[in-house]
Design brief:
The structure holds 2 protein chains of 2 kinds. Chain A has 6 helices and 5 strands; from the N terminus they run E-E-H-E-E-E-H-H-H-H-H. Chain A is of the alpha+beta class. In chain A, helix 3 (about 85-95) packs across helix 6 and helix 4 (about 105-115) packs parallel to helix 6. The mean pLDDT of chain A is about 95. Chain B contains 21 helices and 26 strands. Chain B has a 7-stranded mixed sheet, with helices on both faces. Chain B has a 5-stranded mixed sheet with strand order 12-22-19-18-13, sandwiched between helices. In chain B, strands 23-24-25-26 form a 4-stranded mixed sheet. Classes of the chains: A alpha+beta, B alpha+beta. At the A-B interface, helix 1, helix 2, helix 3, helix 4 and helix 5 of A face helix 8, helix 9 and helix 19 of B.
């Protein structure tokens, strides 16, 4: 155990945990955040995605000691129920979910990509989402929501 | 049962209403409602009705309005249902139903789903049965309709006006002629209960008068979902909660030899190593500690008995003994008719074991303290889960409370039931609440897989190209199932803890069918479906036989979205295409020639029309086995014979050099009776189409001589979000005057055959084994 400092969604937290603990466990267990989810623990599905320094990162295979002091954004940090981020709003408007378990990975992967590629075309968006899984197969709506968010975000 | 064990939805509703559900159910503040046209009801003895002194309430009786509907003094409505939200939109549709029948705004309804302390026992949320159960003539719909009738009756007394001069609007009962005479539901009910039996004759609102049902209302859970505020079962946290992890055997059928506890002695956070017969698990303070301890724990297992070779599995299956044989139809003249037919067509199809493969591994929280247990579970059946948990824990069922919390999409039986047992066993062993989330491997290697199948089809054609006789014979292995009310051994944890799966009962030959059931779609849509001299099917072919041989599976099996229906339909609809080709007929026209059911005929025509179907025989005149070939394929189904209708067109490109299939466009027509929520229905059709594609193109469970080898997303192939998603067009056929049917499983049932038929159209090559991997496509092209 050692003291680990994490900056999550604008707040700083100091945790006394094993420094090899994957970031996901610190976020969901210690900080009780509901956005990032354990899907596979292998970095394969994307459910645990968070944004670290502008990059979509798989928190289930990221030891907490490697992200000390840097800004980490989870799905909660993007927007609120009252004031959702444009991409969250787009997912609501397109009714782009079934069970919703994969949304953290879908929305944050798309957000990190669109921030860097505001003019991306649909093919490029599709490629950017190629390592994210949705087993309810809400793909059509999700891709439509991301395209819609691109338009909103570039305004 | 303390209020803190309640779901947040339920708590909020009760808080708003100013009473607790239990005191409500047991209270004596009953409304006395007398129906002029219905029954006269005596006040109920609530304690006798809902369980004895000190015992938690048993299942709220389905025959009481109070089991379904509560109206608070502020006029807000809480509805209780035994059919749960799994991501299919069932919570929104049920809220629409209640708002519609009670004539209140949608946002005034709160839905409490599946909690054994509060909601009626509606069995399992499965099998496309939620709409038929709760939207037709019983359950929630009839409970809400009776409540409206009761409110009208109460208002009649209060306002001194006859019922026929009153109308229910916007949470009020109003006089039809005098706008000043009205009374709100909150005031009418005044926090009391109805004490009224559900009236089977209470008038339902006709679909023509709907203002809330039938509309594409967006799901109210979306804002919480997209902002990370939604509480999945994975997020349930109770004070003092510990974390568990299980250690499963190394091989299928292995038994425990030894657990070396010294291998983890002194590890940080260790609370206990738990062994119960062949069940092994660990409990730790924190989840990462539990994971590390479980991976370090030295456990010795016997070798497994060995598994049949996967390369020759289908041959093995076809010859496996003993079998349990079932005839769905048997006209007795099939062989004779085939022998007399100028053309006989035969084909064999193969379908692998596939998995539910939830994107989130399954999770549950259990708090077993002495004689009582409270469990938060994503199980599709809280009441059956309660009964089997009681067996597993040695407790009285009445002392076990199961509270549904949504898990990751499950499509049947994923690890939800088994992980609930895991959490319960571990919690009982340490006397504290324990949360367990399975590892990816534990989720995938031990779930109840969707059924593998070998399917033989034979049919005859006369000189005019009409089908003279059709024979369907299939083999499929089974082991375990949903646990039901008394079989915890039907899933891995129950079996490891010492309970047997349901017994395999060989039966051969099959008895002649006594009643007609096409529950598994073993009877092709084109068969007449005759039993006892009467035709129940959807087709015209009178010489017919459908025979299924079940054998014993090495792996657990269970219902995976459209169980058996999908496998049988893949064979039937592929074979129908082969017959059309043999008759040199257009596949759609050929289908229509052999169908008798008007609703099935309509979806076939609707899909063909929307797709601008190119009517001609397959293969296409442009079919080729080089370069990129294009084709279109058709498929349809009457799900379970009469529980939802779909026609589907797939347009594909086949890269003949690589064997890669790209589906470019899918057009699906759907008839599920009156449409509750068109947007939710479209979402189900779209998801079903793409999940069907993933299952047709890539999904197959694999194993070696001892153990499953499909253990993660590299070894089990699901189409990711970034694949080349086809354009999907959904045509909805609304049937406001028909019964509500299922809609969650119809689309997926038809996808595999439509793609195979399109590949044939494009190339002239027939692929008969799912999944259509590039290697198999290339082999079919070469063949």
């Amino acid at each position: 155990m050692s003291a680990i400092t994490l900056k999550v969604n604008g707040s700083t937290h100091t945790l006394d945990i094993d420094p090899t603990t994957p970031l996901l466990y610190a976020l969901s267990d210690d900080l009780q955040l509901r956005g990032p989810k354990f899907g596979c623990g292998l970095g394969q599905c994307g459910a645990c995605t968070v944004i670290v320094k502008g990059q979509a990162v798989r928190s289930c295979i990221t030891p907490v000691e490697t992200v000390q002091g840097v800004e980490i954004t989870t799905l909660e940090g993007l927007g609120t129920i009252e004031k959702p981020h444009a991409i969250q709003k787009a997912f609501i408007d397109e009714d782009a979910a079934q069970c919703g378990f994969c949304l953290s990975g879908v929305i944050l992967t798309a957000k990190a990509f669109l921030d860097k590629n505001p003019k991306a075309n649909e093919k490029q968006i599709q490629e950017a989402m190629s390592r994210v899984l949705c087993r309810c197969f809400t793909h059509t709506r999700m891709l439509r929501a991301i395209v819609r968010a691109r338009q909103e975000m570039s305004r | 049962m303390t209020p803190d064990a309640m779901t947040p939805d339920a708590l909020a509703a009760l808080k708003r209403a100013g009473f607790s559900r239990r005191s409500f159910l047991q209270g004596t503040g009953a409304l006395i409602v007398t129906f002029s046209i219905g029954e006269v009801l005596a006040p109920l003895d609530a304690r006798a009705q809902f369980g004895g002194e000190g015992a938690p309430p048993d299942s709220p009786p389905a025959g009481e309005v109070d089991s379904w509907i509560a109206i608070a003094s502020d006029g807000s409505v809480t509805a209780y249902t035994g059919k749960e939200e799994l991501g299919q939109g069932m919570s929104t549709a049920q809220m629409q139903l209640v708002a519609e029948e009670l004539c209140v705004p949608f946002h005034r309804v709160t839905l409490v789903m599946c909690d054994t302390a509060f909601t009626p026992d509606q069995g399992v949320t499965s099998g496309s049965q939620s709409s038929p159960t709760n939207f037709n003539h019983k359950g929630l719909a009839q409970g809400a309709a009776t409540a409206r009738q009761a409110l009208l009756q109460l208002a009649s007394t209060k306002l001194s006006l006859p019922v026929d001069q009153l109308t229910a609007v916007d949470g009020e009962i109003r006089s039809k002629s005098d706008a000043r005479k009205k009374i709100g539901y909150g005031e009418l009910v005044a926090g009391k209960k109805f004490n009224v039996k559900v009236d089977p004759n209470a008038k339902r609102k006709p679909a023509s008068e709907w203002t809330i049902l039938g509309k594409p209302i967006l799901r109210p859970d979306m804002p919480e979902l997209v902002t990370g505020r939604y509480e999945f079962v994975h997020n349930v946290s109770v004070p003092g909660m510990l974390h568990g992890k299980v250690v499963r055997p190394d091989a299928v059928g292995a038994s425990l030899v030894n657990v070396d506890e010294s291998s983890v002695a002194g590890m940080a956070g260790l609370v206990k190593v738990v062994v119960r017969k062949n069940f092994v698990g660990v409990v730790a303070q924190k989840p990462w500690q539990a994971t590390q301890i479980a991976s370090q724990l030295k456990v010795t297992w016997t070798p497994g008995p060995g598994l049949p070779k996967q390369e020759s599995f289908y041959d093995y299956l076809r010859n496996q003994k003993p079998t349990r044989d079932t005839l769905s139809v048997n006209s007795g003249d099939v062989d004779q008719k085939l022998a007399a037919s100028p053309t006989v067509v035969k084909a064999t199809y193969h379908h692998p074991y596939q998995m539910h493969g939830s994107v989130g591994s399954s999770c549950a929280v259990a708090d077993v303290q002495g004689e009582k247990a409270t469990v938060w579970s994503p199980s599709q059946g809280v009441w059956p889960q309660r009964a089997t948990l009681a067996m597993l824990l040695g407790l009285k069922a009445g002392n076990v409370r199961v509270i549904f919390r949504r898990g990751s999409g499950c499509y049947g039986i994923n690890g939800a039931d088994t992980v609930t047992y895991d959490a319960a066993i571990l919690s009982q062993s340490v006397g504290k609440p324990v949360r367990v989330q399975l590892s990816r491997k534990d989720e995938m290697a031990w779930e109840n897989y969707g059924f593998a199948f070998v399917l033989d089809e034979r049919a005859g054609l006369d000189a005019q190209g009409n089908i003279t006789a059709w024979d369907h014979e299939a083999w499929s292995p089974v082991l375990g199932n949903r646990p039901g009310y008394n079989r915890p051994g039907n899933v891995i944890t129950g079996m490891l803890a010492g309970f047997e799966p349901q017994e395999f009962r060989p039966r051969s030959p099959a008895p002649e069918p006594a009643t007609y059931s096409n529950n598994g779609n073993s009877v092709a849509s084109y068969m007449a479906g005759q039993v006892n001299g009467k035709a129940y099917g959807t087709g015209t072919i009178k010489s017919e036989r459908s025979l299924i041989h079940n054998t014993k599976s090495y792996f657990f099996t269970g219902p995976l979205r459209s169980p058996q229906r999908l496998q049988n339909t893949f064979a039937h609809e592929s074979f129908m295409d082969e017959l059309a080709a043999a008759a040199k007929a257009d596949p759609v026209a050929f289908r229509l020639r052999h169908l008798s059911d008007p609703r099935l005929i309509d979806v076939v025509k609707a899909a063909a029309k929307a797709a601008n179907w190119d009517a001609r025989p397959s293969p296409s005149p442009r079919a080729k086995k080089t370069g990129v070939a294009m084709g279109r394929g058709f498929s349809c189904v009457a799900y379970e014979g009469d529980n939802g209708y779909v026609g589907l067109v797939a347009e594909v490109e086949v890269d003949t050099a690589t064997g890669k299939i790209s589906v470019k466009r899918i057009v699906v027509s759907n008839d599920c009776g009156p449409i509750s929520n068109p947007d939710g229905l479209r979402n189900q059709c779209e998801g079903g189409a793409l999940q069907g594609m993933s299952r047709a193109l890539g999904e197959e469970v694999t194993w070696d001589d001892q153990m499953m080898t499909s253990i993660d997303w590299r070894t089990y192939h699901s189409l990711p979000l970034g694949f080349d998603v086809p354009k999907i067009e959904v045509v909805l056929l609304n049937r406001p005057d028909e019964e509500a049917t299922g809609a969650g499983e119809t689309t997926i049932t038809t996808v595999g055959a439509a793609i195979a038929n399109a590949i044939f159209d494009a190339t002239g090559a027939r692929i008969r084994q799912i999944p259509f991997t590039p290697e198999r496509v290339k082999a079919a092209l070469a063949g």
